[in-house]
Amino acid sequence: MPRRGPAARRGRQRKSTRVTMQPGSGHVDSTDSDGLGNLGPTVGRLAATVERLRQQIREAQEAADGRGVLELARGVLVERLHCSPAEAARHLDSLAARAGQTPLELATEIINQAARDRVTEATQAFLSHAVRDVAAPPGGAGGGLAVAARLRTTESAAMAAADAQAAAEALLAHALQPLSAVAVAVWSAGADASLTLAGAAGFGPEETTRWRYVPPGIATPARTALLERRLVWYPSLKQEGLPSIGHRASAADGRVAIPAGTGGRIIGVLEVCWPGPPPEQSARLERQLESLAEVCAHTLETRPLGNTDPRTGNRELTELIELADGLHDSVMVLLPHHDAQGVLADFRIHHLNSHFVDLAGRPAGMISGTLLLESYPLAAAQDGLLEKIERVHATGEPFHAERVTLTSLVEHVPLTAVADLSITRHGDAVLLVCRIEDETARLASLLQHAQRLGRIGGFEENIVTGEITWNSQLFELYGLPAITSPPPLTALPAHAHPDDEPAIGRFLRTVLHHHQPSAAAFRLRRSDEVVRHLRIVAEPVLDDAGHLLAVRGAYQDVSAQHWTEVALAATRDQLAHTEQQSAERNRLALQLQRAIMPSARGPIDAGGLQMAVRYRPAEHEHLVGGDWYEATVLPSGQILLGVGDVAGHGIDAATGMVVLRNALRGLATTGAGPAQLLGWLNLVANHLTEHVTATALCALYDPATRTLRWARAGHLAPVMIRHGEAFTLPMPQGMMLGALDEGEYEEEAITLAEGDVLLMYTDGLVERRDGSLQDSLAHLLTTARRPAADLETRLDNLLTYSNADTDDDTCIVGIHLPAPDRQRQAQTGGGIHH
């Protein structure tokens, strides 16, 4: 509110008028401190006047909209009662008053009884339940009219429209706005399946200008309804991703597209738009929309976009027949044939051109004028030809296909032929052009394609006349223009490589002098300095006396085959060399791995703790990996335990394993804990190796306190067996070695009890291609909890019953803290032994 100065406020000072309604008084009290008088009764009278005028306007609109329906119903009464139009009008008013209906509703029922059309069918369900639009929005067409009256009113308004644009406006105002629709578009379908915007309502002028024409091939809701010949429903056009008129506006997102046509021929599409999803799809709503689409079809046929001159149809048909007679292929002119209900049932063969050929050998007089299925019954089932014709007639989209198999019955014997088809629509007629493939032409075409694919050029040389004939492929092989005179066979050595002259000489002597077929391979030197590897095959043609008349033969370009063989030989040599190098590297890697980690070591007893290790290498030498283990007593008396897995296979993985394992052993002598050792080992992997990445598990056991501390670097957690139960220990945080320059590693600790068994292993023990890691760990725990005579037997059982199938290296380190009596027995055996 803008602020005013004191002078302005003094000059515009007014006292407010307060209007209050006294409860129960039925009148308005007004206090006017301005001296303008009592305005309460005046405002009420003005409001009543405005409402009365609005009501009169609505009644006038309803009367104007329904005038066509009323006039049609009065005409029905005049014809049936044989009375005057004035008597029919009075009779209609009297019947409506006695029935408790408006005259427009009664007029609709009279028309529905007299006319059995799509509008009648669409409104029967509504009339049977006395559906009334008692909640029609103000200003909507028909006010409180029944649905049937609204449809008849819409039909009357559309029929009276001057063009398709006026019809679209009438559809939106009278029938679609009560259904909450906000816009409508009427599309006219062209002969090439293009779409032209014939009328639109509810869209801006920019949208109607931009969407005036949609060329063939653009996917829109209207084209989908045209090609599929059915009503299509789109809850959200934006989610479907289809463009259409008004698709950028949020007020027109829901769409329903209905094909508009009669007698099986679609001439347009009605597209209705809602601000959100369309109303719930139902059979009654679909019938109502289909009836509106038929009104659009009638408008498109009879208004400016339609055919207004009845003579034009005959002229178009005459022109089509003249076009068919001018073609050299077999041509049919087909007209649609409808049954008693107006449904497209077949097509009548209206005309056959002079070049028409029947598959069964019948003359054209026996076929012309018959129905298509009468003369060609298999067109509906086996060939599917009738379906293609119906689609072209309905949508206008032409159909072209090559090498289509057609079947005809001759005395119940099916005869087949291969033909090229072309089906197009011209007005209401369909032109079927059929080019039946001739057997000679087909074989010649096959031979030409075979020569082209095989790079074969044929020739024939008449020895008597000297005439030489080459085909086009042979000119291409020689690199000569087609107008050049072909050289004779005797000039072949001049075009060949000098080293190939002996082979060419033998070939010419065999054919020209010994009169026997022969073949030769040589290198052709062309004028453009391109060298081609060719193979020539020729045979002589002799007369009855054995004299040479001609030579026939063919050249084949085998350059690609020659160079392929050369490349293949070089590849075989290189592959053999690579295999030899790979085998040598695998052998060295396997020797290095077995030298550092033998597959089995005897039991180790240190500080009352029994230790055992197992190493199982991969079965295939090329899968030699980087799995390693460590179990040794440090100078401090603590026991170092560890396993690890270097990523990859081969010599690189084996050398990376050696670096990490030796580094761990050296760093462990510093007395650092497992977490610190893995941190240092990560630095080694990042800076002292060639980009090695690995997982590792490191543990230190103190015999004095029976405490086991461990840390992990992306490795699987160890398994503890205690009192006959097997379980995995907690996994401290720690990323794999070599992933980052600086890694943080956590540490866990546990005190071993008498009889405890601890297992550390690599993933080769549990990894499977077709199962999850959880299932493999569950299987491992089941195997581990089985009773075993000693630690060695337990480790052997783990390898024996492992369900792993990746053929990867496997390392296992196991420790066992025996009971005191067993410790004494082990010590009696003396010290640490292997």
TrEMBL record:
SUPFAM superfamilies: GAF domain-like, PP2C-like, PYP-like sensor domain (PAS domain). PROSITE patterns: ANTAR, PAC. It comes from the Bacteria. Residues 50-111 form the ANTAR domain. Residues 1-17 have a biased composition (Basic residues). It holds the Pfam family ANTAR. This is ANTAR domain-containing protein. It comes from Actinomadura spongiicola. The lineage of its organism: Bacteria, Bacillati, Actinomycetota, Actinomycetes, Streptosporangiales.
